[in-house]
Amino acid sequence: MTRSGPFVSDVPTAEATAAWRAACAAAGCPERTGTEHVPVAGAVGRVLAEPVWAVRSSPAFDSAAMDGIAVRAAETVGAADTTPVLLADFAVVDTGDPMPVGYDAVVMREHVHHTADGRAELRAAVPPYEHVRSIGEDISATELLLPAGHRMRPVDVAAAAAAGAVAPAVHRRPHVVVIPTGDEIRPVGTEPGPGEILDTNSIMLVAQAREAGCTAAATEIVPDDPERITAALRAAAAGADLVVLIAGSSAGRDDHTAGVVAGAGTLAVHGVAVRPGHPVVLGVVEGGTPVLGAPGYPVSAALTFEIFALPLLAALEGAAPRERPSTTARLARKLASVIGSDDWVRVRLGRVGGEVVATPLPRGAGVLTSLVRADGLLVVPAGVEGHHAGERVRVELLRGLAEIARTIVAIGSHDLVLDMAASALRSADPLLTLASSNVGSLGGLVALRDGLCHLAGSHLLDPATGAYTLPYVDRLLGDLDVAVVRLVHRDQGLIVAPGNPLGLTGIDDLVRPGLRYVNRQRGAGTRALLDHELGARGVDPSAVPGYAREEHTHLAVAAAVAAGRADAGMGILAAARAFGLDFVPVAQEPYDLVVRADALDDPLLAPLWALLDDPAFRGGIEALGGYSCAETGRRVR
Predict the structure, then answer these.
(1) 139 within domain boundaries
(2) Can you tell me where the transmembrane regions are (predicted)?
(3) Residue 202: enclosing H or E segment and its boundaries?
């Protein structure tokens, strides 16, 4: 199944893995790393190359399991409260002491009364071997304690030591060498210029390898020169069990990885049906070293390392790949997927109404924060087009279910105050998480209606009445008993470049020919505000250049203006300030939190309501600019 040539293929994941392993076998790659002996105390995390057999029993003798007195059980028969037994023949023992010869039971110290003449008074009989640890109770000499292929845990090294193991045989840790490539890549710690990128992928991949129990190191950054990349690959392969080439795996003019791997050995696969990570390269360097060509986008690099490298590295140690626990969750919103590729979707998780709810995070291969914020991974198989909102799906867990149960799920409109609240809540209670998903006010209300979130952030303007949020609550939520809590009032306006070079004064200027506007997504309250303002002026939205271009957060709008990709976009003053931009006020609006009325007293939400009453927190909000906390925390319905 060799894939050579300039074009990226779509090889199914299982087929790609099989082709890579076949190429490695044909090239003589070792199936296992070598064996070494390590002190048992330092064997945690290592994989046994040979079984551990007990060379001695534990305990090695019959021993007392309690502090008390050693007795002959037969001499205690008949002891009771009304007919105590007095013993003159006993031995005082402490926990762990060898049992004195001739004694077969221990009476706990607190159950013994010593008489004035030194005898022991017992008021209950004891059976033979009561509170006695028999020889070999834990481990018997010659028994198999741990099999080959077992990854050692702290309890394992303790048991091995008790069984007489001094230096168990383990597989050498696989060594991974990461080679970053690209003319635009700069070392971390330098200040990148326009078009330059910091080499964060090397840090991440080296850390992933070490987390998997390997040794790992990164080389110097190699420019986009096939000969230099080839030389670096050959040099790394000489001392590595796996080489990872970062970037250059696609089919662009500076993408040399596939050609370099083919020239240095065997190109097994170029392009796998997995997203993100489609252009991955799998091959082997002449002499017997596997090579993984990881895409340059960070999410693609991280996931392709997990999908392809981790199983190979585990196999080199003779261990099973580590598997995450999983759970069933309801999707908070519709999830579309492209047919033909396994789609790895990062999700945030929370428990709402007794069920785990999964909210998809941004899908871009370059959105590393989607992995940072993810609580789980949802794999949509290649033959599935996606899932509907509310559908139950299987999710691999990146956090424990106990942590997920302490997560407040907020879905709806984006606002910086929710980010501030998430930070403040976590600072006060490390077990508490506020997870916000930005799908627009309308999407938040629908999610609340369907029982998929605790809170819906909303600032929807109703053009017919001029009121915010409440008319939509009435229309969308019907008879559902909900409460509406005021979060803030905030200034909305046009975010423009520093100095407002185009001299924009308001909504009327958005129809200027050549203006580049960036809009919010359908269902967003900010977009509803713009549509209302345009309608009040009799302006067709299509007359605004760029109206169809959408971003999902205020910060994304500000980022587009700051990068010079747009001249203006509607957003909040705090977002403009965050990017050092100017702001043309348009309106002040309320931003509210909608919650089911029966959840208002939920202990999970109590810290949030307390935070909204905190004067220091309110002061921090207003310091952002463009916010008023005069009504923060007030229930408006």
Answers:
(1) no
(2) none
(3) helix 200-211
Of the CA atoms within 13 Å of residue 464, those in its CB half-sphere come to: 4
Average pLDDT over residues 577-606: 95
Omega within 30 of 0 (cis) for the link into 276: yes
The reply to whether 587 and 503 lie within a common domain is: yes
> Is the Cβ–Cβ distance between 108 and 68 less than 8 Å?
yes
Write out 331-393 in H/E/C secondary structure. ECCCEECCCCCEEEEEEEEEEECCEEEEEECCCCCCCCHHHHCCCEEEEECCCCCEECCCCEE
**Torsion region of 457: left, alpha or beta (phi above 0 gives left; psi -120 to 50 gives alpha):** beta
Q: Are 410 and 435 contacting, i.e. CB atoms less than 8 angstroms apart?
A: yes
**d(Cα 73, Cα 103) in Å, to the nearest integer?**
8
Residues 209 and 349 in one domain: no
Q: How remote is the C-alpha of 180 from its chain's centroid?
A: 24
Sole residue written with tokens 């005898």: 119
Tokens 């309690």: give the residue. Answer: 66
* Short-list 426, 485, 424, 478, CA closest to 454: 485
Instruction: Answer yes or no: is 191 within a domain.
Output: yes
Report DSSP letters for 394-458, one per residue. Answer: EEEESS-HHHHTTEEEEEES--HHHHHHHHHHHHH-TT-EEEEEES-HHHHHHHHHTT--SEEEE
Q: Which residue segment(s) compose the domain that 163 sits in?
A: 36-52+144-171
Q: Are residues 613 and 494 in the same domain?
A: yes
> Is the pLDDT assigned to residue 339 strictly greater than 50?
yes
Q: Decide if 88 contacts 74 (C-beta within 8 A).
A: no
Residues 216 and 253 occupy one common structural domain: yes
Residue 499: both structure tokens together = 């100095």
Question: How many of the other CB atoms lie within 10 Å of CB of 37?
Answer: 13
C-alpha 101/C-alpha 116 separation (Å) is: 26
User: What is the C-alpha to C-alpha distance for residues 13 and 9, in angstroms, rounded to an integer?
Assistant: 12
Nearest to 573 by CA among 563, 562, 560, 587: 587
Give the tens place of pLDDT for each residue, 172-214. Answer: 999 999 999 999 999 999 999 988 999 999 999 999 999 999 9
State the SS3 of 471-528.
HHHHHHHCCCCEEEEEEEEEEEEEEECCCCCCCCCCHHHHHCCCCCEEEECCCCHHHH
3-class secondary structure, 327? strand
DSSP 555: H
Nearest C-alpha neighbor of 344 from the set 410, 274, 286, 398: 274
Average pLDDT of the chain to the nearest whole number: 92
Is pLDDT at 3 greater than 50 in this prediction?
A: no
On whether the CB atoms of residues 113 and 79 are closer than 8 A, the answer is no
Cis peptide before 127 (omega within 30 of 0): no
Q: Name the region of 268 (left: φ>0; alpha: ψ -120 to 50; beta: rest).
A: alpha
Please state the separation of Cα 479 from the chain's center in Å.
37
